[in-house]
Amino acid sequence: MEPALSPAENLGPAQRSIVLVGLMGVGKTTVGRRLAALLHLPFLDADHEIEEAAGCSVTEIFARFGESAFRDGERRVISRLLEGPRHVLATGGGAFMDPRTREAIKARGISVWLKADVDLLMDRVGRKGNRPLLQNPDPRGTMERLVAERYPIYAEADLTVESREGPHDRVVKSIVHALKSAGAISLDEP
Ligand code: S3P
Hints:
The chain is an alpha/beta fold.
């Protein structure tokens, strides 16, 4: 039989899933996958799990059902994932903005905000059409507005790591350092 999961309030930092939050384009998925491999933990991507559960893409969910239906699905999926065994979780940029999703992350996760400036984010989102919030005539203006709205909330994350120009592995290293300092991984881990 599977051992019973500890209640959220009893979880120490080293038992919590590592939850990456931050804006579109900051590299949560790429960085999360590498971090998970390094820590020998499973990697999960919330947007991908939502798409699996819904049977269609995030863009289609927004177009067919609207953003608030997407946020409901996102909240359910993230809560379910965080009930499972420890893992590294990349969340979509809006997840931590939803108060109930944020509560679920605070209860069972150790959150890491990947912070970057607008130039870097705009460089990284490129021209792919897979971000419904940026499908408008002024994606840069939208990104600036999201920075203003979201950064004060992302700042509630347990840890903040800056993502600058350069290889993703540099960010991975900074996260490992921050997680060690927070007691979320032991010193003999990489
Ligand atoms: C969103 C970010 C996207 C995705 C959806 C909404 C947001 O995820 O969840 O398009 O509100 O910032 P990424 O941050 O992985 O692009």
